Amino acid sequence: MCGIVGIISEKEVSPLLLDAIRRLEYRGYDSVGMVCIHQNKLSARKDAGKIAEVDAKLDFSSLKGAIGLAHSRWATHGGVTRANAHPHYDCKQNIALVHNGIVENYDELKKELQQRGHSFSSDTDTEVIAHLIEENEADDILDATRKALHRLEGSYAIGVISTKNADELIAARKESPLVIGIGDRENFIASDIPAILPFTKKVIFLENGEIARLTREKVEVFGLDGIPKKKTIVAIDWDAKQAEKQGYPHFMLKEIFEQPFSISETIGERMSEQDILLDKEIQGAVPNPMEIKRLIIVACGTSWHAGLIGEFMLEELAKIPTEVEYASEFRYRDPIIPDGTAVIAISQSGETADTIAALREAKKKGAKVIAVVNVEGSTIARESDSVLFTHAGPEIGVASTKAFTSQLTMLYLLTVYLAEHRGILPQDQIRNRIRDLRKIPHQVQEIVENQESIKELAELFFRHTNALYLGRGINYPIALEGALKLKEVSYLHAEGYPAAEMKHGPIALIDEKMPVVVIATKDTRTYTKVLSNIAEVKARGGIVIAIASAGDNEIKEKVDHVLYIPENSYILTPLLAAVPLQLFAYYVAVLDGKDPDKPVNLAKSVTVE
Ligand code: M6R
Prior knowledge:
By secondary structure, the protein is α/β, with parallel strands linked by helices. It has 19 helices and 25 strands. Helix 7 (259-267) runs parallel beside helix 13, helix 7 packs antiparallel against helix 14 (427-449) and helix 9 (301-317) packs parallel to helix 13 (402-421). The structure holds 5-amino-5-deoxy-1-O-phosphono-D-mannitol (M6R).
């Protein structure tokens, strides 16, 4: 949710901190702050507002010092005010701290600390950590922080600096992500890899309950018991350029346009002409595909929509009974997980708190977990038995686009692999399925290249206040996803429904002001039924926008507007139908003056419950 960075270097760190925190702005953007140590004093600036606005006012880069922290906030405890922006301090302002997470017992700790004479300057949960560290100020900063952390309940990723140990940066994590970057006589901490990509590609992933001391020369990691830990340095293969806009006005548009590439990257070396090659990747969770009796998919948001489509694919092609659960609900039930059940956890970030909790619940009950994840080194990737990386590259736009189509690609590969290894699909059909997927990157390219008609449509609709999205079968989740994209970035009220359910309620909403987006691609199962649903909308004066298959000229007579997508097999249409809906949401938001990369109230990675 919040983004944190810290740098210890031989040069001035404020310009680097500013660059890094800008790259994390997608995690939270209601307030921003920076602190450095200069001439043995803390020197800090912070305020409510987006980074660019606050920087224009406070000029972060003019802060002096070769060690510092920065923070971009997504408020949980305490309103969006200057006082609540990070960093937070101890009473004497010797210690400065940035935090991502929630201190659940902060109320009780705050009362206790106040009784002992500590005075607080903010309403945040975070500030208690600084005062708890202060309580052990006789110790060095590593030990003082370590002791303070024993008192905390909840989640944290923190960066701490102190004037008493001005050449050390302390970092620790529990349930909130934190990565350490290893540089040349400089070291870094950050909530996420893209923040430090311009400086280093060598990282250490901090585990829950670990604390690190960074100096310019070295990084040492300890458990909270103070025992040193050996850590592996991992080389990241992302390019810093991938995390930049590269001439696009927004990350969201760039990422929509990147999809032909990101889908190809997901396919990678995982397909030959006649085989899906997942043996090695899947072995940890599924040593024998014949033994899988049931699959449960857990995910949140857009990843959950991918899961719904995955369910359709897995049942249809691999004939495995599959259920899809909101991770946030699954974790608080007492789910029954019989023998032979494997769980698939889908997540772009790999750090979504509810998905992590669902994964742990599944493992506790004896299930093997397959992760479909984009971010290497993330918690979900590390804790799963098998990881299928989506390789979509860094996704910065808060609204997930390329990660979604990569998840669908990965789920399709997994499905065809399982269908093949369970003897469900004959070899000629496997070949056809592989050929179908090979066409997808070019077909997505065709859609984005012909975006003019989508833009024009957005011009007609950006002043509307509501929209309904309908789809059937495998495209019902695309209706949900289309509606979610529009809601997220344009703040219009949009609902996704299975088309046939419309007459059981939402039809009451339809009048001549209601745009209804219908996924009406040509297939033998639902097409004629969807045409009937369209007729029902038209009979009530609704405005119908159809996503239709190229060459379907008749549909033009039945609807108000048509966006065509290329033809492919039914099971792959979601990968194509999603794209015009992403572009539509993007242009509606932009035409209405919204910033699609920073939707209000949203954070890219939901690392709190
Ligand atoms: O990183 P994850 O895929 O686990 O994130 C799950 C959701 O928070 C995410 O998909 C969210 O719904 C996006 N903002 C959708 O655009």
